[in-house]
Amino acid sequence: MSPPSRRLQTKPVITCLKTFLISYSLIFWFTGVILLAVGVWGKVSLEAYFSLASEESTNAPYVLIGTGAIIVIFGLFGCFATCRGSPWMLKLYAMFLTLVFLAELVAGVSGFIFRHEIKAKLGVAYQNAVATYNGTDSSSSSSAAVDAIQRTLFCCGFNNYTDWGDTPYFKESGVPASCCKDNTNCSPEILKDLDKAGTEVYTVGCFARVTNVMESNLGIIAGISFGIAFFQLIGIFLSCCLSRYITNNQYEMV
């Protein structure tokens, strides 16, 4: 059994570590809520972009939602483990934080390395969507995505509105109405004439705008992911220290 002075020195350290770890766990829980919100936002706001590349489908929003939900659960578990002062719970919490750190680091690096491939695949998918566009087919997700992008980003075609002149849809119906600045001025006759349509439709191509939107949003998501990833190191350190001090304190009392 160790001297009382030794135990008296250990208890304040444990109390201090518990305070820091509870505060950390609450912040960690909040980051999970942020990831959940980003995942839901990505699913709702970027659905049109993801549906373009149906052959190269991505589960990124679901991954963020799932990761956020798990972090919320383990954030609460971290608070509970800290309050209980259970060494094995704290070690389990530290192991989970380590896994989250490695997973987010790998995901972030992979996204950065393959960003150009993702952009190229999106370009091919968008060109195919324009070439096979059928505005009268409500079941076509790619056509609906093209319409949504053109209306939302105020653009038309792949490089510009003249790209529609080479499509089968243009020969039948002209430039899609989703390209119009003001639908009241877009008559079928104007949409079937590229020269006349140039004054009534958006002239900027969509691909550049789509990639700009995707890259800016991916930058935000990547920044949040890397920030959260390195934030785990603090939790791992605190969990391991608290577990060690509690274990040593239990031995000292024997």
UniProtKB/TrEMBL annotation:
CDD domains, alphabetized: TM4SF2_6_like_LEL
Alphabetical keyword list: Disulfide bond, Glycoprotein, Membrane, Transmembrane, Transmembrane helix
InterPro entries: Tetraspanin/Peripherin (IPR018499), Tetraspanin_animals (IPR000301), Tetraspanin_CS (IPR018503), Tetraspanin_EC2_sf (IPR008952), TSN6/7_LEL (IPR048232)
A Pfam family matched in the record: Tetraspanin
Entry membrane topology: Multi-pass membrane protein
A GO term from the CC aspect: plasma membrane
Highest taxon in the source lineage: Eukaryota
S-S pairs: 155-186
Locations listed in the record: Membrane
Xref: PROSITE patterns: TM4_1 (PS00421)
Name this polypeptide is given: Tetraspanin
